[in-house]
Write a structure and sequence with these properties.
The protein has a single domain, classed as Rossmann fold (3-Layer(aba) Sandwich), CATH 3.40.50.300. The protein is built from 9 helices and 5 strands. The protein has a 5-stranded parallel β-sheet with strand order 2-3-1-4-5. The structure holds adenosine monophosphate.
Length: about 190
């Protein structure tokens, strides 16, 4: 089983690229953001608990995420591959993911780091807000989410370097298919 972390700030195209990887390679797309939004939409007990946090652009607690991830890995051990999108988001989550994978004789095979400038992120998210109507795509929340990214998420890359992960940096501000072609070259090396 191939495990890929697609890494980058909000608006870098992680979700779009993960979806394309899923379609081409038959891997499972694991997006914690999508899962959490689904819980909110259904107004489950978890959804009600996290709604304010997610809509403000803050991070949901590591404990909640950990429960979701453990359950997910346990239920998907037969998958061809998994693309982790929007997860891990903190150093603690990154360590937990490594432990969970190792416990199942698995590892992270590839980290795709999508690089993109802040001004492009802001433009893209304004467009997404109009198109998808996401409650957390407004200007204040975007600034919050970017701060969370720099403070809590970006340090994961240092951890991944220290633990010798296979990290590939890809420039994200290009045509979706050009970015995808670069990603495919990397995935094909693993097959
Ligand atoms: P995303 O769709 O990945 O941009 O996530 C949307 C929101 O869901 C984030 O701003 C957080 O509030 C929450 N969220 C998603 N994934 C995580 C995670 N791994 N850890 C904590 N919060 C998360």
């Amino acid at each position: 089983m191939i495990n890929i972390v697609i890494f980058g700030p909000l608006g870098s195209g992680k979700g779009t690229q993960a979806q394309k990887i899923k379609e081409k390679y038959g891997f499972i797309h694991f997006s914690t953001g999508d899962l959490l939004r689904e819980e909110i939409k259904k107004q489950t007990p978890l959804g009600k608990k996290i709604e304010t946090i997610v809509n403000s652009g803050a991070l949901v607690s590591d404990e909640i995420i950990e429960d979701i991830v453990k359950e997910f890995i346990k239920n998907n051990l037969n998958a061809k591959g998994i693309i982790f999108d929007g997860y891990p988001r903190t150093l603690h989550q990154a360590e937990t993911l490594d432990k969970e994978l190792i416990n199942n004789n698995l590892k992270i095979d590839l980290v795709i780091k999508l690089n993109i400038s802040e001004s492009i992120i802001k433009n893209r998210l304004k467009y997404r807000a109009l198109k998808e109507g996401r409650a957390d795509d407004n200007e204040d929340t975007i600034i919050n989410r970017l701060q969370f990214f720099y403070q809590y998420t970006l340090p994961i890359i240092d951890y991944y370097q220290k633990t010798n992960k296979n990290i590939v940096e890809i420039y994200g501000d290009r045509d979706v298919n050009e970015v995808f072609a670069d990603i495919c070259k990397q995935i094909d090396k693993l097959l």
